[in-house]
Every structure is written in C-alpha cells, then in structure tokens.
Specification:
Radius of gyration of chain A: 26 Å
Helix content of chain A: 25-40%
Oligomer: homodimer
Strand content of chain A: 25-35%
Structural class of chain A: alpha+beta
Number of domains of chain A: 3
Distance between the termini of chain A: 28 Å
C-alpha cells in the first residue's frame, strides 16, 4: 500500500480516511458501520482515557458498570428520550441459535424468543436511573457521582471512522443531586473539565456554550457543549454535558428524603465524550504528510533512528543512544529506539512522520564524532543539529514548545474563522467560501433555525457561555434578537 | 438493610450473595442474568485491570478494539467453535424501533430486519481472525501480540454475581505466530503471567495445568488453566490460555510468506481472565464479617477513624491525622480519613470491616496524649496500640505482612485439601465430606471422565504442569494409567 496521502486541498474527506487507515489508527471491519481500532489508534485513546479518568476522579467521581442491554420499555418512560434514542437501535430478539437441518451452519432458534426485546445501549440514562431508584433513599446518598467507560451502539446510516460509527467507545457520567443548583453546577463543572482536556491535552481550542432547544440532548433541560473547528472549516461537537432537571427521576420515580424530611425528586446530569475525539484530534493538527500529535497524547514522544552502514557503527551508535534513552525516560518522556534492520532509515522517517511522532532523532557516525544529534520536529517539519550534552533538557523543552505551538496554530486558525455577519446573503457566502463559525443574530425560534438549516446546512453550534448581550435583528426574518449565536456547518 | 451476614457454615452460597451486595461490590440489575458492578466493586476490578495490563505490556502486547457484533456465519467457519459458542448467544435481528399505533410505546420495526443476524460476541476469535487476514501477509508482520479489554455475552441459564453472568467484563489476548513452538511458548507464558498475578496480587494460590480434551476451549489444541480452591472446597477455574494451533488461521484463511518464501498458515493463541476473578478473590479470603482484601488490590488500604465527643477534640485529632495521611501517601499507601459526622465510630468500624479495608486506625484524645494509635488488622481481626513515631514504616510492613499472611493461609488450606485417592468409594467420600482437589488415576478416556462426572459431579480440573509420571490404575475402570490428575467439584 502506498504511503502517499491524498492532499487535503484535493479531497479533505479522502485525506482523512486514508490517514486514519495508513497511520494504523482504525479501519472498517467486515460489519457495516463498525470499526476496528488498531493498536496505535487505541494507544492514543488510552492516553486520552487515562487523563480524563484522572480528571473525573479529581472531581470526586467513581467508575461503575451497568448492563449493555436495556429492555425496550425503559425507553418509553421518558417521553423525549424515546424519540431521540429508541429508533435507530440494535435490537436483541432471541437468545439461542441451533444447527441447521444440514448441520452445516447455525440459524436462530425460533423457540428462544425473548418476551421483551432488549436494546443495545445507545446511552445509559434509563438503565442507570432504574438502578439509582435502589441506591437513593435519603439526602445522605447524595450527591451520587458515577462515571462509566463503555461501548454504545447507534445504528447510523452514514458512518465514518471515529467520527460516526455504529459502535463507539465513550464515557458517560451520570450524577444525582439534591438541588437544581448543585446539578447545574455539576453540568457546568464537567463542561469545563472537557474544555480543559481539549485545550491543554489535545491542544484543540474549543468554544464552550449552550445548545439551542432543537440541538439539545433528548431528555435534557440544557445541553452544554464544547465546539471545535476542523481544518476544512466545519465545526465538530466534541463533548456535551447535560442538565437533566428532574426528568429521569420522574420517569423512574427516584425520590429522596431531604434534610427537612420531605420526599423530593432527584436532580440529574449526564455528560460524555467518545472516540469521536480521535477524529477531532486527527483533523485539528494533521497535515499532508500524515498525523500530527500533541506530545501529551503521543504514545511515542521521541523516536531515535540510527544511520549506519556497518555493524560496528550500529554498535557504537547504540551505546550512545542507550544513554540518551535512559536520560529521556528519567524525565518521563516515552522514547522508542528503532534499530530494526527490516527497513531503511528513509522508510522509517516516512513511517514515523505518518504516525505523528512529535520528535525524531537521527544519529550517525558523524554525530558520534561531533557529539551531536539531528533533531526533527513533526509539527514544523524543521531539522536542527543539537549537541548531545544537555539533550534531555532540550527535548523536554521542545516537547512543551510543540504542545504550545500546536495549540496556538489551531487557535489562530479558529480565531480567524469566526466571522460576524448581519446579512443572510453574506452568511451564505461566508459559509460557502470561507467556512468556520459565523456569529449572527437569531430571533430565538426553532422555526427560523430550521429554515436556516434547510437553506444552508448550517446549524446553531452553540450560544457561547460568555456571550455579550447585543440588540440586533435576525438576519433572515428581521425579527428582534438579543444576542449573536454561532452557526456553522458541522460533522 | 441489616449489615449482618449469613455465616459461611450455615449457607455458603447465601453468605456469598449477601456479601457481594452488602459490601457494595455488585447487584442484580432488572435484566435477567446481568449485573451492575457498583463503584466499590469496580474500583477493585480497576486495580486488577491496571496490574494485568501492565504485565501484558511488559510482555510485549498492545491493546486494540474489535466490533461487539459478529455475523452469525463467522461462527460456522470453525467446526468445534460453533458448537461451543454459537448456541446460547444474544442475537441481534433488527436495527430499528418505531412508535406503536397508539403512540405510547415502541415496537420492533419489521421492515428493519438484518439480512444476516449478528451475535453479541461470546469471545472474539472469529472477528479477530477475520481482521488478521488483512493484517498478516509476511513473517515481518509476526508475531502479532494483541489484547482487548471488552464486555462479552453468554446467555447462561443459571447466573451468580461475578461467577457466572450473561454479560461480563474481561480481557482476551489474541496472538499470531510464525511457528508452533512460538505459539505454544506464548500460551505458556501467559499462563505464568496469570499465575503470577493470582498468587502475588490476589494472594490466591493456583495450580497450573492442562485441561483434558473434554474441558478444552472449543477450537483449541490445548487449554492451559489456573485452578484455585474456594473455602467451600470447590475449585474455580480462574484463567485460561489456549494454544489454537492453525485452526483459526485455516478457518479464516490467514497465511503468511515465510522467510524461506513459502506460504504457511499462521499459529495462534488466545487467553483471558474476567470479572469472575472478583468472585475468586471474594471467596478465597473473606469471612463471616465480610470482605477481606489483599492490600495490593484494596482501593483503600488504610482507613482512619477519629474517636471524639467534642468538636475541639476532632480538630486536634484531625491536625495529627493530617500528618499521618501525608506520611502514608508519601509511601504510596492509599488512605482514607473518614471524619464524616453522619455515622458513629462503631458503625464505621463495621462498615470498613464489611468492605475489607486491610488496616484500620482509630485515633482518640487519649492517643494524642500518649502519642499512640490503635491499629486493627482486617485479616486477623487483632488490635494493637502502636506509637505514632515511625507509624508509616510500621504500616508499610504490616501491609506486606497481611498480603503474605493471606496467601499463606489460603495456601495452607489448599494444600491440606489435595487428597490422594486410589479407590472410587473413597473418592466419593472425600468429595462429599472433605471437598477440595482429589488426585487420582484416570485411564485417559473421555468416556470414563464423563462417567465420573455423572456419578459425582466432579470434573478433571487439570493435569498439573509438573505432574510426575506414575504407574497406576484408573479408580473406576481399573484400566492402566500413567499419571494422576486433579478432580474436583467446581464453580
């Protein structure tokens, strides 16, 4: 398979798909809409998981695990939730197979039909609130701060690796509180945790905001979101945190005895990010040479490649490299010395470039003589000759610089792609030609939102949290508006 | 809910179920055979996962993720595998629900029927070897050392929390090799990793051995197992590692070009442990007071409880305890200071005893005066007054002692419950009265094995790896035998 990627400028979507496969991140399985996450892709996801899990625990959450299969009837208990989640779902109807008459294969045993069909969880509010009914009696049981790492299934018709797959991996936090205020604070806190993770670890700038009613999670009173901007000018919803009010407590009859001795319904939140973040990470930083990874999420931060002709040269290089490896490891830097003789240095250079390893060191006989190393940065594709003395400190600083540089580059792109617009023709022109977020007045009605979506494919990505109030007129209907909102075409 | 447990001597099975629920480890969900793993139980599982994952990575394995749903036809490709795994399975037949005519609930949409039914994975050999066909072309692609952490589903008729549930969590390693020898070495290596984990982390002695043909994994040429003994004298298969020969490579047509330029079928292994280990851990060490945890897997290793009447006493105690907490944390010991005023000390003592926290410290005003602490061990239920000076070192040693003591206690129980028997009447008597492993001669035929199972419910747990050869006669048939094997009743 050729390692050359289609250029982003030629076909962004094709570039993305090729990159995901060729960099060893994921591939389509033989089963419609379901992907295989390959070892290198999974290693990145593990780094994301580890960091997020740490942040969840630091904010007082514990992990637990709830059943994969949810009885069909659970979905009908929350009126909006059923419309949002019980439609395109994988349905288990039988629990046994039997040999076919010819003995050559298996078929569904019609006598093993479930009394009630089970749905593979598309999200777990219903099964979790069914459980919380048993766990919550008194204010002493609150708050209940639980997270689950799990696979979920939504029968998507058009799928793309990481961005939209029938099965995906995610975490879903589900918390229960004694007061509205506390639940809202929790939903906001988790939004900030997501924002912090996106910006400081993924080096991906995000806009924090609230969704319009139309774009809200089915069953939520408010949905908070972090929205990122991809290099093709499309927005990507990267994480959501929902204030669920008392909707699920009422649907599953979960009440608690308050300090004052009253029986009250419990307040709820839920929040999640998924393997979709892998798509966001890839599309935020990568280039026509392949993946570009922020050092904080790179499974391999530094790769070292020996350049030699004779076996004795390799020995001398390896002796020196061993010292470098130990120094870097002592600083907590993950480093790989690739001395395999299966491939030539040029092949290896391309391979690690494709895989987005942030820093590449090359060491040859001349470097040994001069006490130097060639240091190549993946983000800028620049090279430098650097003295071996003090190399560990140099690399440590360089990794920090790369992390910052990636964030700044992405932020600068994002910032120059937020366009204020007051006229609908201009709105359409900006969406088509420049892309990115468009900040425009909206009259606040779902009808207008729908009309704009029909005419342009753009949706309201969010109403930013720190949005200034500003008198204006809806660009389409001319009706009065109190603030601008952010529109964009999106994934 | 009363915290008092049924005694083991009264009803071992009831004791187990009560302990699992009351200690906050797991509970039955509303869905048949599926459990909810509660936060405290999940925290123990996470410690197991972290340690196992570390050991897998140290032996060169990488994690990946494969689809949850497997097309029915994949199972028919390996003749034995289909019998073992494609029977009691959850079958997805539809991918959409629709509103019922009255609009009040949802029903399966008959037009959304899958062309081919999908099975929720009971184990992933088939989907993984379908994938490996794309990944393996040449000897350069081998060995392929992959592990997956995942949920799996087997439609068990009789379920018990952790020990046998329809859905369970596990890891499954799937490796591909160029030679038989290398694959056998891998299967054996992973058996030793499991044994090491069981003995050094779970403090659970295990016998390593090979399964008889009857008890082999469906599709394996050899199944290696670690077998533990529970306090009721029943054996528990705790982990298995399979040498799969070329069976799956042939079923999925996975060949590689060898160094010599020949096309050959790939050799395979698979190996797994599951949340069943939670059941093994509980039943190996716990007592009538509740859970007993080996320190290495305890989410909380030390709990500190203040004993006070007045608020100012609590303040003075807390000031001292803060120092202790910091000293213990500096040694990597996980410690919880429970100064909540919701419950009295006596309630807390019982609670942490039930939850198996290895060491409990109590600090009262008199301790402050004397510069002492009361230290209670969960394993022996003994108490001691210990000087605060040097407490961190004392606790560190104590945790090691507890870890060792639990292992020695379990080993001594296990060793006194391996009984050599040469007569079938004695065999039955030992099984019924003493329990444990019975070491007896067997003529090597599946027929005799089956007969013994029918007559006694005992099965061959394994042929130990280091089994000495010894001439003898099968205790039932009198036919010649070359070695003793281990029988037991089992979970």
């Amino acid at each position: 398979m050729s390692k050359k990627l289609t250029k982003r400028s030629e076909d962004y979507s094709k570039w993305y798909n090729e990159l995901v496969v060729k960099a060893g991140l994921a591939e389509n399985s033989g089963i419609r809409g379901m992907m295989v996450i390959k070892p290198y892709g999974y290693a990145i996801w593990e780094k994301m998981q580890a960091q997020l899990d740490k942040m969840f625990k630091e904010t007082g959450h514990q992990n637990a695990y709830f059943p994969l299969l949810i009885p069909k009837s659970y979905f009908s208990k929350e009126a909006k939730h059923v419309d949002g989640f019980a439609k395109e779902a994988a349905v288990v109807t039988h629990y046994r197979l039997r040999a076919t008459a010819d003995g050559k294969s298996v078929e569904v045993d019609p006598t093993a039909k479930l009394e009630e069909e089970l749905i593979i969880r598309p999200t777990s509010e219903t099964i979790i609130w069914d459980t919380y009914k048993r766990w919550i009696q008194s204010y002493r049981d609150l708050p209940l701060l639980v997270n689950q790492w799990a696979n979920v299934m939504r029968w998507e018709m058009r799928t793309r690796l990481f961005l939209r797959t029938a099965e995906f991996l995610w975490q879903e936090g589900h918390t229960a509180h004694a007061t509205r205020q506390e639940a809202v604070a929790e939903a906001e806190q988790m939004l900030h945790v997501y924002g912090d993770f996106a910006e400081n670890f993924m080096a991906m700038p995000v806009i924090k905001g609230v969704k319009s009613e139309t774009e809200r999670f089915a069953g939520a009173e408010d949905t908070y979101t972090i929205e990122a901007l991809m290099q093709d000018g499309k927005a990507l919803q990267s994480g959501t945190s929902h204030f669920l009010g008392q909707n699920f407590a009422k649907a599953f009859d979960v009440k608690f005895l308050s300090k004052e001795g009253k029986l009250e319904y419990v307040w709820a939140t839920s929040w999640g990010v998924s393997t979709r973040l892998m798509g966001a990470l890839i599309m935020t930083h990568s280039d026509d040479h392949g993946l570009v990874l922020p050092p904080k999420l790179a499974p391999i931060q530094v790769v070292i490649i020996p350049i030699y002709r004779k076996e004795e040269q390799l020995k001398a290089i390896t002796a020196k490299v061993d010292t470098i490896v130990n120094q870097l490891k002592a600083k907590g830097i993950s480093v790989k010395y690739d001395d395999s003789d299966n491939y030539k240095p040029g092949w290896k250079f391309n391979e690690y470039e494709l895989k987005g390893v942030p820093v590449r060191l090359a060491v040859g006989p001349r470097d040994l003589e001069n006490g130097t190393v060639e240091v190549a940065r993946r983000d800028t594709l620049t090279k430098e000759i650097v003295p071996m003395a003090g190399l560990d400190v140099y690399i440590e600083n360089l990794l920090n610089q790369i992390q910052e540089n990636l964030f700044e580059k992405a932020r600068s792109y994002r910032d120059t792609h937020i366009t204020k617009v007051d006229d609908f023709e201009e709105f359409k022109a900006v969406l088509d030609q420049k892309g990115g977020f468009v900040s425009a007045h909206w009259d606040g009605t779902p009808e207008t939102e729908e009309k704009i979506k029909d005419l342009t494919k753009a949706t309201i990505r969010c109403i930013p949290l720190d949005n200034p109030l500003e008198e204006g007129k809806d660009m389409l209907t001319g009706k009065p508006s109190k603030q601008r909102v952010l529109f964009a075409k999106s994934y």
